Amino acid sequence: MVSGTFVEAPPLALAGEAGVRPASRETGRSRARRLAPPYLYLLPAVVLLVVWTYQPLAQTFVLSLHSWNLVPSTPMEPVGLANYEQLLSTPELGRSVWRTVVVILGMLPFTVLIPVAVALLTRRVRGRAQGVYRALVFAPMLVAPVAGAAVWQWLLDPSAGAVNRILGTDVNWLNTTGTAQLAIIVITGWHVAGFAVLVVTAGLAGINPDYAAAAKVDGASRGQVTRWVTLPLLSPTLAFLVLMTVLLSAQWTFPLIDTLTQGGPVGSTTNLYYLLWEYGFRSHDAGLAAAAGVLFFAGFIVVAAVLTRLAERLSHHDD
Amino acid sequence: MTLVSRIQLRGLTRRFGAVTAVDDVWLDIADGEFLVLLGPSGCGKSTLLRMIAGLLPPTEGTLHLGDTDITHQPPQRRDLAMVFQSYALYPHLSVARNIGFPLRARKLPRAQIRAKVAAVAETLDLTALLDRKPRELSGGQRQRVALGRALVRDPGAFLMDEPLSNLDAKLRAGTRAEIAELHRRLGATMVYVTHDQVEAMTMATRIALLDQGRLEQLGTPAEVYDRPASVFAATFLGSPAMNVLDATVLTVDGTLSARAEDIDLPLGIDATMPDRPVRLGVRPEHLTIAPPGEPGIRAVVTGVENLGSEEVAQCRSGTARVAVRGTRPLGVRTGEALTLTARPEHLHLFDVGSGRRLTWQPGAVPAAV
Ligand SMILES: Nc1ncnc2c1ncn2[C@@H]1O[C@H](COP(=O)(O)OP(=O)(O)OP(=O)(O)O)[C@@H](O)[C@H]1O
Ligand SMILES: [Mg+2]
What are the residue boundaries of the ABC transmembrane type-1 domain, all occurrences included (chain A) (predicted)? Predict the structure, then answer.
């Protein structure tokens, strides 16, 4: 009789199969060469940012602690926080903040509501008509604000303007405290609405059409599809537009205010940016303007942070 | 309410510019049927399904549900449920809200929606996932949610566009069985798109085989497999595909046989007819290795593939390739010369020009040669 026994199959010799484990030591030089490329690619952008954004920012901060009349031959006088104290004690600041809020609220229909409605309604435009339509919508954005302002000034003329004639009114739009702000908002809105429509259209194009198709098969009416599927999926785009509006509205109005109302009548169109500009380049008080700039910068950082946080909470990663 | 969910496609055609994606398709889908739309990629399956769902208007033809013409009805009013190839789960809604969506659109009371969603989630084993968002789910879980969204509403018919294509082999087998079981339990009409022949063979009550937008064959899985209507149908189903060889039907000693330089297979028909070139089809599993000297297909083995339980011998006969499939081991080696035979009932003949199946009709006078 032959005796024997069962032998268990040995476990796979992985190391043997895969060869020798690679040495993990690496010289400092080769490590640097491996890690450097991403930073090198970033370098040009970082340099531009530093030269054109961060350096002026730092200079502004320094300037805000000095008194200076913008004349190169007069020396800058350090005054500590005096500029800030002066700024915070003037009632103009509070009023201009409130006017800025009004401008932002007044701009939202032009940057969000109207563009969403237009983009949704014209989604089915195709082919050559689509190009023409987009060009039409976008055209005001290409008109230089100052040129646009000149035309609007003419349209809003109290005696011969087309606006009064069409509305059958005789309002002196740009020289009445109530209507000047409204005119500025509407004209700025006319300028930027086309751009916002394009942004919304791009956002809509980025939504997989299967979602709307699924909702239709699921029995949702057209309105329900828009409310329950399209708009929620568009919310990142909408959040972006709101953010742009809040941060940039006052800036967009600047050329129009400067051409049409110069902040008047009675300061009724003087918002933050115009106030800042007046301090710096009308009153030649560079320190005060810089202090205002620093304050606005800080304020907008807070607003932007809150809005970005909100936008992130809203957005759904569509995958 | 009686469910009248018989779906009729009458000459449905859809063109995209110069491309005819669906070409004059006539189909009568009975109530409770599990119809599988099968065909290679780009043959128009999704286009056909989207037309049935109402997401794409047909260029020509009409569509009927029960007795009503629904060609111009919007998808909302068709009462069909669809599972998309991409699942199309609403990314901003939780699993529960995804499944409940069709009920919400129908304005059912909230409590009722919650109860129905819970019941569906229970059957699909999704209860633990109800609060998750689609992006937090695996492919198989998403597939079940998509299925749940269709099942929650008891529709006239289910349309499914390759719902299993994103799943791994094991999950696919499991879900395949689940869907088939679901169909048995609900008795609902299903139109199911796939390019996977295993899915088609195992689940379908009937298969509609499409090629370049045209309906190539319609029949039960057994009919389509056993009596393919054309060379396309013959080679589309089966793995490896059916062998198709050029041959000529000759009358020898009062019986017909298919001949070519390396082929000599009796067709088992005692009759005479003029010689006729044909395409001869025989499935790999119907070929057997015959003793040398017997009539059959002379071939040389070029390789042997191991499928686990079976083996496939890839052979060359003249310039044609022939595959033989059988229980492992087949007992052949690369380079070996073989004679392969098949029973007459396993031989398929196709026309050389049209590729359509040829059937024997005794007594018919052949048309002028
Ligand atoms: N919107 C469209 N515009 C132009 N051509 C299209 C469009 N949709 C489909 N086609 C064409 O119609 C044909 C059929 O497409 P379809 O999506 O129905 O194929 P399919 O059978 O579902 O393929 P797959 O198995 O790859 O999903 C293809 O040739 C495709 O290129
Ligand atoms: Mg498809």
Answer: 97-307
Q: What is the ipTM, given to two decimal places? A: 0.81
Measured in whole angstroms, how far is the alpha carbon of residue B142 from the centre of its chain? 24
Domain covering B243-358, topology: OB fold (Dihydrolipoamide Acetyltransferase, E2P) (2.40.50)
Domain with CATH 3.40.50.300 in chain B: 7-236
pLDDT band at B369 (very low <50, low <70, confident <90, very high): very low
Q: Please state, in angstroms and rounded to a whole number, the distance separating the CA atoms of residues A267 and A263.
A: 5
Q: How many Å apart are CA A64 and CA A77, to the nearest integer?
A: 11
Q: Where are the beta strands (DSSP E) in B189-329?
A: 189-194, 206-211, 214-219, 243-252, 255-260, 263-266, 276-282, 288-290, 297-306, 310-317, 320-327
Question: Which CATH class for the B7-236 domain?
Answer: alpha beta
**Domain A86-314: CATH class, spelled out:** mainly alpha
DSSP label at residue B169: H
Distance from the Cα of A316 to chain B's closest Cα (Å) equals 6
* C-beta B44 within 6 A of ligand 1: yes
* Closest Cβ–Cβ partner in A210, A221, A318 for B84: A210
Tell me whether strands B157-161 and B189-194 are parallel, antiparallel or unpaired.
Answer: parallel
Q: Is B42 in the pocket of ligand 1 (CB under 6 A)?
A: yes
* pLDDT reported for residue A1: 61
Interface of A with B in 208-237 (CB under 8 A): 208, 210-211, 213-221, 224, 228-229, 232-233, 235
The domain limits of chain A are: 86-314
Across chain B, which distance is largest between two alpha carbons, in Å?
80
Distance from CA of B155 to the nearest CA of A (A): 10
Minimum Cα–Cα distance from A224: chain B residue: B105
Instruction: Cite the beta strand spans of B67-188 per DSSP E.
Output: 68-69, 80-83, 157-161
DSSP 3-state of B303:
strand
Ligand nearest to the CA of B194: 1
Using CB atoms and an 8 Å cut-off, which of residues 234-273 of chain A contact chain B? 235
Question: CB distance A216–B81 less than 8 Å?
Answer: no
CB B82 within 8 A of CB B150: yes
Most A-contacting residue of B77, B78, B83, B92 (CB-CB within 10 A), to test interface:
B92
- Range(s) within chain B of domains with CATH label 2.40.50.140: 243-358
| Ligand 1 pocket member B144 (CB < 6 A) | no
Asked if A63 reaches chain B (Cβ–Cβ under 8 Å), the answer is no
What does B267-287 look like in DSSP terms, one character per residue?
A: -S-------EEEEEEE-GGG-
Asked if the model's pLDDT at residue B211 lies above 90, the reply is yes
Give the sign of the dihedral formed by CA B80, CA B85, CA B88, CA B91: positive
Q: Considering the entire predicted model, what is its pTM? A: 0.79
CB A316 within 8 A of CB A232: yes
pLDDT digits (tens, 9 = 90+) for A173-225: 777 788 888 888 988 998 888 889 989 999 998 898 999 999 999 998 989 99
pLDDT digits (tens, 9 = 90+) for B218-235: 999 999 999 999 999 999
